[in-house]
Amino acid sequence: MTVKIVTDSLGDIPSGVAEELGITVIPINVIFGTINYRDGVDLTTDQFYDKLEASKIFPTTIVPPLGRFADTYDKVAEETDQIAVITNSHKLSASYETAVLAKERMKRRCRVEVIDSLSAILAQGLIVIAAAKAARDGTGLDKVLELVSENIPRADVRMAFDTLEYLRRGGRIGKAQAFLGTMLKVSPILGIKDGEAFPFVREHSRARAIDHLYEFATGFSHVEEMGVEHATTPDEAEALIRRLKAKFPKTRIYLSRVSPVIGAHVGPRVLGVAVLGDRG
Amino acid sequence: MAPTKSINGQDLREMFAAATSWLEKSSADIDALNVFPVPDGDTGTNMLLTMRSTVEESQMADDHSASRVAKAMAKGALVGARGNSGVILSQIFSGLSQALDGKDAVTGKELADALAKASSVAYAGLSNPVEGTILTVIREAAEAAQAHAATVSDDVVSVIEATANAAKESVAKTPTLLPVLMEAGVVDAGGQGLYTILEGVLHYLKGEMEQLKLRRPWMVASSVPLTAKSPQMVGVEEVPYGYCTNFVIKGEELDPDKLRKRLEKRGQSVIVVGDNSAVRVHIHTLDPGDIMSYVVPLGTLHQINIRNMDEQYHDFIEMQKERMPAVAVAIVAVVVGEGLANVFTSLGATFVVPGGQTMNPSTKDLLQAVEAVTSEKVIILPNNKNIVLTASQVQSLTEKTIEVVPTTTIPQGVAALLAFDYEADMETNAQNMNKARAAVKSIEVTRAVRSTRLGGLDIKKHQAIGFLNGDLVAVGDSPAAVVQDVLGRVKLDTAEVITIYYGDDTTSAEAEEVGGTLGKQHPQIQVEVVQGGQPYYNYIVSVE
Lengths: 280, 544
Known about the structure:
The complex is a heterodimer of chains A (280) and B (544).
Chain A: E1 4-8, H1 17-21, E2 23-26, E3 29-32, E4 35-37, H2 45-54, E5 60-62, H3 66-76, E6 82-87, H4 95-102, E7 111-116, H5 121-136, H6 141-151, E8 155-160, H7 165-169, E9 187-193, E10 196-203, H8 206-218, E11 220-230, H9 234-247, E12 253-257, H10 260-266, E13 271-279
Parallel strand pairs in A: 1-2, 1-6, 6-7, 11-12
Antiparallel strand pairs in A: 3-4, 3-5, 8-9, 8-13, 9-10, 11-13
Helix pairs in contact in A: 3-4, 5-6, 8-9
Chain B: E1 6-8, H1 9-31, H2 43-58, H3 66-80, H4 83-99, E2 105-107, H5 108-124, H6 134-151, H7 156-177, H8 179-184, H9 189-205, H10 209-214, E3 243-250, H11 256-264, E4 268-274, E5 278-285, H12 288-295, E6 300-308, H13 309-323, E7 329-335, H14 338-346, E8 351-354, H15 363-372, E9 377-381, H16 388-393, E10 401-404, H17 410-418, H18 426-439, E11 441-447, E12 452-454, E13 457-459, E14 464-468, E15 471-476, H19 479-488, E16 497-502, H20 508-521, E17 526-531, E18 537-543
Parallel strand pairs in B: 7-8, 7-9, 9-10, 16-17
Antiparallel strand pairs in B: 1-2, 3-5, 3-6, 4-5, 11-14, 11-18, 12-13, 14-15, 16-18
Helix pairs in contact in B: 1-2, 1-3, 1-9, 2-3, 2-4, 3-4, 4-5, 5-6, 5-7, 6-7, 6-9, 7-9, 17-18
């Protein structure tokens, strides 16, 4: 039977692509005050970002209970006997620990292997997409896990921020703390390194920050997967895709939206580009 | 979730037991934060041991009333308290117990009032309460609890939630209140510990058992940037270190207030808490024998613990080195003016040497800065054409590797600093910074010190003169008009960002007006007006 891929919604896999590749995505919820908003169910993404900017309460995110993971495994196990679960970095959420513990709560018999992507957002998403493609082509579970391990260092992402305040308040700032509190209006460019947010450079204007994203993506000599994601600025994302298309005409470039659960931690107006590939 | 109208003694036991397990998960991280009052790196451990004793003693209460359990906890906290933060924590439990006296169960409002009492008792226990510590956190958290109970809800869970949220924000702000934290780029360890305890209580009250089991407490991030200061500079304000001395005196008719006053003359960081039968003492002293001889006649001594703080300090330094950002390359910048110095440090300059026009630093000044930073590789930004040569002499005097990025103006220095890539090596960074330096245009406006003729312009003494990239191009009666004049000589249609740094004899109103006019004329440009505070130059403007 073919390997099935399960992941959490922190990988921002574009709607449609998950369905196309048979990826099961476990939603991670956002809590505003005492109200629990199920990702994409109780609140549209646009409503969420409006609320994020207007609300004084800082939203928190929660990983669904063990039971939810276990139930998902059981449901997927109706169709397969081997599941690869690829999670968000353990340094950024409790998704990995929950996914591992949930194995014991399963009712059905099925081989389940959990692997930490040490990543997040679309970089995690691209690792998952590559694994799903391999699974679709009949690759066995051990080979899929091997592929994921190989792809972890090959997936990279850069995000242009307007402010790091959301990241700070959510406690996920890591070493990017060095970029806090600048006295000038700058756009910090962050990526993920060793499983957590890492500060790379600061650009002095939004236009330059976007140029930086473009240069980052075009610095790859071989591109296997590529995607652009935004929170509230679709025009910028589409313009960036057009520029990248000119350089990589044969590559399918995914357009994705930063999910509310990630948006709560990065803030509106974040724009990012993720690449799975090799640098020249 | 069903509202929780009140909690009893059994709830108190269980919620603080859960909070203790929660604290245990991050006690090592909290240890790594400690810089105040001395960097001894055991705040997390001390608070944990204090909490354990508190929880153990809570089992000794003879019934399940809030009053009796709180009293038992206060006793457990007092006898088990270790270190500064532990002792303050014991004061917090003492305050809670006083406020809950005679109560079977506690409502949200009563709990908020008890926290306020806990805060005032904590302040009262110290001879010299310092803000930006666990004290600020308990006070602000209690204030938020009372405000929430009075205006939003009396529900216990929602009051604790408001308390924990306020504690978190309060912890994040501690570096703005306590310079030693700001320097070390950390939040207060005791404050973080208290927040973690409140967060653990909240998880318990919300019934989030899986979260308590699976997750780890978040360490609150400082609201100010982490500047990579040399760890040796951390905590130098309190000298000498000596011995951290802790003990309990048991006796009859002890007087904690009198004892505190006496001990203050014999040491630092004195905390004396307790009642007339048992008193806990924490003191930093050069001669623990002297303290012991002094207190022996007062009663029997228990739980005596004396540690050499120099050893603790060295362990702490090692621990700090591991968690400091790995800055392989440090940046030394020459800057004058408080605002400009803040701009440079906020952008990651490791060391700022005061200096500029008419006050050029010596080679020795720069060498000292280079030697003071921990990195073996140092980039120097002279930011003035008269300092570039001095900076280039430093390499011959040090074993460290030096690169001078020859910035001749403040705007060039800022542009170079912004181009610094935290992941790139020194050579790549120096190249990128040089490229960025060359791409920026600098405008400087000052007043002529004497009448002269320069660059084809007749200048009278005290007239405003404007330079573009170091060349005199404009003269006029007001600095604001000269800025406009020079800007008119620059091609602005490709400019993206203009930053105006105004000097210490220029008003912010005037500078804002210059910026506002510019913004109206060129809506596509991002215009920033920043208080530079530099002497001599009314305006320094960067065009990128």
